[in-house]
Specification:
By secondary structure, the protein is α/β, with parallel strands linked by helices. The protein has 7 helices and 10 strands. The strands form 2 sheets. Strands 6-7-8-3-9-10 form a 6-stranded mixed β-sheet, sandwiched between helices. Strands 2-1-4-5 form a 4-stranded antiparallel β-sheet, covered by helices on one side. Helix 6 links the parallel strand 7 and strand 8. The longest helix is centred in the C-terminal third of the chain and has 16 residues. It starts with a strand and ends in a 5-residue tail after the last strand. The model has no long low-confidence stretch (mean pLDDT about 90). The structure holds adenosine-5'-triphosphate. The site of adenosine-5'-triphosphate (ATP) has 12 residues, from helix 1. This is Cell division ATP-binding protein FtsE. Part of the ABC transporter FtsEX involved in cellular division. Important for assembly or stability of the septal ring. Keywords: Amino-acid transport, ATP-binding, Cell membrane, Membrane, Nucleotide-binding, Translocase, Transport. Belongs to the ABC transporter superfamily.
């Protein structure tokens, strides 16, 4: 479903984020991505979403070469993806519910249907009772669960979550991970980057990155 073929990414002469990375992730898999800060984890996710393009090599999603996608095809790719990336904060001047409705409204869903689906998504991550809250009234873990609801409201085939449990205490981190695992259990392919040793120790598959290179788990 996701395949990297000898992918390298060089932002500048000094900044080489990925070096000759080859890996594949099958449909329905749950894969964790581990590695120190700067190892290239965020870059790897951004290439799957066509936010960044490989310098050399190929990234395939469902057999389609992401590097060759024209501008018009990118929104169709993104609809297959539920992105929980570090720089995508919730809009603080809108309610939780409005944040979740937004991805539906921009793709043309009628308001009533958008609200129903947004409420269903919030229910799935255990946040329906906070639908009318403002994002900044929520704890970090609650905000992450809302971000998950926003990512899955369009029913993506793949979820990419970049350090969704960073800065969370154990109990909040477990709730966030449980929400992600529940989507994987119903067939959504998930890639989650984390530094959480406890989670990595019990994971069935971990891809390790170090200085942009694979250090295990790619097969
Ligand atoms: N837009 C950019 N321009 C230049 N260099 C970049 C850019 N984005 C990332 N880099 C560099 O590429 C390398 C990999 O960064 P990346 O953010 O992918 O790592 P990461 O493993 O996600 O780190 P972290 O755990 O801190 O989020 C780093 O050396 C970083 O400084």
């Amino acid at each position: 479903m996701i395949e990297f073929q000898s992918v390298s990414k060089q932002y500048s002469a000094e900044a080489v984020a990925l070096r000759d990375v080859s890996l594949s992730v099958a449909k329905g898999e749950l894969v964790y991505l581990a590695g120190p800060s700067g190892a290239g984890k965020s870059t790897l996710f951004k290439m799957i979403a066509a936010i960044e393009r490989p310098t050399t090599g190929k990234v395939l999603v469902n057999g389609e070469d992401i590097g060759k996608l024209g501008k018009a095809a990118v929104p169709f790719l993104r609809r297959k993806l539920g992105l929980i990336l570090q720089e995508q904060r919730l809009l603080t001047d809108r309610s939780v519910l409005a944040n979740i409705m937004l991805p539906l409204l921009v793709t043309g869903a009628p308001k009533r249907e958008a609200e129903q689906r947004a409420r269903a998504a919030l229910d799935k991550v255990g946040m329906l009772d906070r639908a009318n809250a403002a994002p900044l009234e929520l704890s970090g873990g609650e905000q992450q669960r809302v971000a998950i609801a926003r990512a899955i409201v369009n029913r993506p085939q793949i979820i990419l979550a970049d350090e969704p449990t960073a800065n969370l205490d154990r109990a909040s981190a477990d709730k966030v991970l449980d929400a992600l695992r529940a989507f994987n259990a119903v067939g959504v392919t998930c890639m989650i980057s984390t530094h959480d040793e406890q989670v990595l120790a019990s994971a069935s598959r971990v891809i390790h990155l170090d200085h942009g290179q694979l250090a295990g788990g790619a097969a």
